[in-house]
């Protein structure tokens, strides 16, 4: 959770001191007001509801909240190499209560919730971090001018089908080196978000020209996943700049029944020929 002490922020605000936790100089010895957003959903996954609550504490001065909103945000790199942030989902306060007046020494809690889209980035795979940066950002306005942002890292686990696809790559001898969120799109493919999550995989038992390094991009959706496989090329970022990719679909209802290994082997077998055609 990310707790914020709001110096000079409230009804008896005391001088416009900075937001420096542990330094009460902006309000003398008076305990400043605080906000604290907490995610209550455990093991959140794409397509599921995410819930939490924001605690507003009046401290010694009281706190008047004019408005607040909660959003899930993702950081990604554009194909031009520029770092950007994009809204993944907007979470709604329970009962649409977006304002509050908290007396000194009192606390007021407002719940929030919303469904994560199926295209939500994955931050955990097999219990390990993917390296993708996802956060819940709570923005609070008070007095018509003061704005405070409370940022909490959000952990989103891969759905079962996504896990099964990546496990199938690992069963073929590959191991995950890194994952990255890139702001780009796949031509002629329906894509509702301006980014792609790609895994960089290596198999030290293969020769360099025998697909020792590959990239796997997984587009999750309500019906399943579309998996793209291509020869690895970390020097290029843009989708169209990289080596050509082959894809295969996997439906949610196929989980536990489909031979994902054979689909991966077929794609890997066809990639060299696709590379030669591009040359």
Description:
By secondary structure, the chain is mainly beta. It has two helices and 17 strands. The strands form three sheets. Strands 1, 2, 3, 5, 6, 8, 11, 12, 13, 14, 15, 16 and 17 form a 13-stranded mixed β-sheet that branches. The chain has a two-stranded antiparallel ribbon with strand order 4-7. A two-stranded antiparallel sheet has the order 9-10. The radius of gyration is 23 Å and the shape is elongated. The chain starts with a strand and ends with a helix. About 6% of the residues have low confidence.
Summarize the model shown.
This protein has 279 residues and is mostly beta strands.
The helical percent reads 10-25%
Low-confidence parts, pLDDT < 50 over ≥5 residues? 11-27
Distance between the termini: 51 Å
**SSE succession:** EEEEEEEEEEEEHEEEEEH
Q: Rounded to an integer, what's the Rg over CA atoms? A: 23 Å
What is the averaged pLDDT score?
88
Number-wise, the strands total 17
Strand count, sense and barrel status of the largest sheet are: 13 strands, mixed
Question: How large is the share of residues in beta strands?
Answer: 35-45%
Shape: elongated
Q: Structural class, from secondary structure content?
A: mainly beta
Number of helices: 2
């Amino acid at each position: 959770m990310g707790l914020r002490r709001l110096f000079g922020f409230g009804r008896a605000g005391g001088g416009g001191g900075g937001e420096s936790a542990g330094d009460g100089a902006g309000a003398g010895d008076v305990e400043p007001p605080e906000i604290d957003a907490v995610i209550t959903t455990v093991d959140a996954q794409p397509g599921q509801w995410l819930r939490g609550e924001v605690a507003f504490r009046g401290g010694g001065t009281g706190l008047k909240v004019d408005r607040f909103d909660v959003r899930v945000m993702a950081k990604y790199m554009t194909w031009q190499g520029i770092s950007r942030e994009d809204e993944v989902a907007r979470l709604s306060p329970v009962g649409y209560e977006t304002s509050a007046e908290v007396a000194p020494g009192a606390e007021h809690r407002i719940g929030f919730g919303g469904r994560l889209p199926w295209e939500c980035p994955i931050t955990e795979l097999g219990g390990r971090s993917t390296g993708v940066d996802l956060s819940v950002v709570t923005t609070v306005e008070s007095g018509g001018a003061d704005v405070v942002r409370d940022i909490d890292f959000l952990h989103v686990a891969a759905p079962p089908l996504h896990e099964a696809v990546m496990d199938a790559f690992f069963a073929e001898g590959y191991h995950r080196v890194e994952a990255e969120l890139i702001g780009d799109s796949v031509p002629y493919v329906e894509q509702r978000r301006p980014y792609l999550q790609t895994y960089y995989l290596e198999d030290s038992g293969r020769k360099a020209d025998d697909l020792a390094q590959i990239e796997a991009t997984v587009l999750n959706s309500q019906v399943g996943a579309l998996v793209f496989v291509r020869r690895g090329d970390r020097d290029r970022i843009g989708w169209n700049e990289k080596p050509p990719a082959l894809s295969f679909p996997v439906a949610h209802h196929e989980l536990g029944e489909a031979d994902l290994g054979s689909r991966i082997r077929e794609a890997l077998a066809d990639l060299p020929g696709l590379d030669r055609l591009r040359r």
